[in-house]
Design a protein that fits this description.
The complex is a heterodimer. By secondary structure, chain A is an all-beta fold. Chain A is built from no helices and eleven strands. In chain B, the strands form two sheets. In chain B, strands 1, 3, 4, 5, 8, 9 and 10 form a seven-stranded mixed β-sheet that branches. Classes of the chains: A mainly beta, B mainly beta. At the A-B interface, strand 5 and strand 10 of A face strand 3, strand 4, strand 8 and strand 9 of B.
Chain lengths: 121, 111
């Protein structure tokens, strides 16, 4: 079955860009079955959906983050990525990639194990 | 950005029943299915209920979900120590260009 693994720097300086990659195994990212999703848990807060991308290139972003976020696919590496620019301490938290199971759903399964990103100088 | 509203905490003794409520709006719960996630600190969240009331694979039948108009609930009967976790509801919001909203989260404590 599909498995996901996040990777990227654990420390990012304020005002810089947070960049994470999610490597997909056990399935093809261009299968057109799943919506490749990023979710985070800011420090001390609840879960927050960041956005998703579909194999066709369709993208949805959280309205509160859309001005700072870019999600992209790399079919050749079977990966998808997250870039969040102009980060502040409020962006510190655990970032998860997940498999979205449908167009109009909040069904995410499976998830990656998550990666902690700290924004600090 | 709108979020779904949940009580911050709920608790019960082993064997008791605990119910968590989730309140939304016409554009999210009122229009789409509700999903419930169990999140144990240090682990990835896990779906326990999908499509309002369907238990995910491997989830015991002590967990049940329901939805009514713009609200939903998750009930845990026969509470067990391993049920202690944070629980989040989630739904798709069809307004704007479409996005997903999570609930504020409920910490379930087994006393």
């Amino acid at each position: 079955q599909v498995q996901l693994q996040e990777s990227g720097p654990g420390l990012v300086k304020p005002s810089q860009t947070l960049s994470l990659t999610c490597t997909v195994s056990g399935g093809s990212i261009d299968s057109g079955i799943y919506y490749w999703t990023w979710i985070r848990q800011p420090a001390g807060k609840g879960l927050e959906w960041i956005g998703r991308i579909y194999a066709s290139g369709g993208i949805n972003y959280n309205p509160s983050l859309k001005n700072r976020v870019i999600i992209s696919l790399d079919m050749s590496k079977n990966e998808f990525s997250l870039k969040l620019n102009s980060v502040t301490a409020a962006d510190t938290g655990v970032y998860y990639c997940a498999t979205g199971r449908g167009a109009l759903t909040a069904w995410f399964d499976p998830w990656g194990q998550g990666t902690l990103v700290t924004v600090s100088s | 950005q709108s979020v779904l509203t949940q009580p911050p905490s709920a608790s019960g003794t082993p064997g008791q029943r605990v119910t968590i409520y989730c309140s939304g709006s016409s554009s999210d719960i009122g229009s789409n299915h509700v999903y419930w996630y169990q999140h144990i600190p240090g682990m990835a969240p896990k779906v326990v209920i999908h499509r309002n009331n369907q238990r995910a694979s491997g989830v015991p039948d002590r967990f049940s979900g329901s939805k009514s108009v713009t609200s939903a609930s998750l009930a845990i009967s026969g509470l067990r120590p391993e049920d202690e976790a944070d629980y989040y509801c989630a739904a798709w919001d069809g307004s704007l260009s479409g996005f997903c909203v999570f609930g504020t989260g409920t910490k379930v404590t087994v006393l």
